[in-house]
Amino acid sequence: MRVEIWGDVVCPWCYIGTTRFEKALAGFDHRDQVEVIHRSFELDPGHDKAHVEPVHKMLADKFGPRGPGMDQQVARTAAGEGLAYRTDRQVGSTLDAHRLLHLAKAHGRQHRLLSLMFETNFAQARTIFTHDALLHLATRAGLDQNDARSVLDDPDAYLDAVRADEQEAARLGATGVPFFVIDRRFALSGGRPVEAFAQALSTAWSERPLAPAAPPGTVCGPDGTCEVPHPDA
Amino acid sequence: MRVEIWGDVVCPWCYIGTTRFEKALAGFDHRDQVEVIHRSFELDPGHDKAHVEPVHKMLADKFGPRGPGMDQQVARTAAGEGLAYRTDRQVGSTLDAHRLLHLAKAHGRQHRLLSLMFETNFAQARTIFTHDALLHLATRAGLDQNDARSVLDDPDAYLDAVRADEQEAARLGATGVPFFVIDRRFALSGGRPVEAFAQALSTAWSERPLAPAAPPGTVCGPDGTCEVPHPDA
After folding, report:
1. Is B220 in Cβ contact with A12 (below 8 Å)?
2. pTM passes above 0.90
3. Which one of B44, B69, B179 has the shortest CB-CB distance to A224?
4. A189 contacts in B (CB within 8 Å)?
5. How many structural domains are present in chain B?
6. Is B214 part of a structural domain of the chain?
């Protein structure tokens, strides 16, 4: 079974929702047969890469005096999940982070790198918006430093993969993140309670589709040969 | 809508079935909203990389005198689809080809590279089993030559991605290829007729699931902010 999670590394509800999902997954009987894939979704796709600012300033600019209070509200929810959450963190473009997460996916390091990004941004309020910071996290996640640098230095590397993820989210009807999709059959939006994720996993498992058999003579099997029932016909 | 196609570059029915699928897709009204992803499935995962032999010899070893006739039967079916198909081609390990197809996927060149591999192997009976040959095809597909060489030279590059595709096929119930999955809801095995693919695309389209709305206060929207309906609560 496959769970795809669209999210952004600066999205508070992605941080909380992904943690809740992982709690549900840890308690799921068939967790060994669940593959989790993180997909790109920039909250602010046009964000100027050079522009990094404190979150409380961004919120105050958008919402006025009540802005910073909104983030403190989310901080209380995060604390309820046992998550450190600092409101003095910064916000900037996440495009390079997403490109790097695609490299990490290719090397089986995606979950580790995303966890480090969440922790660095939300729990430590340290920057994830410079190439130096991203390179450091990539290395800690077990990626080859030269591979990571090569991706960061080439703005086109994995750009199509990021855009494909984002277009796919739109096609599937996502209007915000986190957005969870199980086997392309069940979708959940937002930071649902652990129980909601547990229920969705159970339902999706019990309703797994089975693949239909192929008609004879049209399929090549794992023994390296192709069925041809009437070779002399 | 997403169509995933598991197959191998030396699998005759994958060559024929993928061509038939593409004919169905070309006639599908919503083809612009269909993403096609090719996934790895080695017919012979343990194939010694150094061992390359004529297909007719492999078939004769496995099936005796009737072996080569089986491939001639498939050649007639291929001709019926307008496909050149040479029975004097070779067979070898496809692991490196699959690893390279994952690199091509990251750069939006997967379909082009796979088409070149099918053409080189089946229509021209030229080798796709050496690094030189693969490097040449990668360059023709628009990949950066150094990137391609770096992947071919590192036997671990994209190895996990190949294995993940193969494990996913097993989880979904595939016992052979080609194996077509639409939105993880509909599956077809084997080289079905064009009409079968057209019907599957139509059915899947008309039954697309819609994403549920998230409860207020649990989702971060594309404007870069997160809904918190009662910031002072």
Report:
1. yes
2. no
3. B44
4. 211-214, 218-219
5. 1
6. no
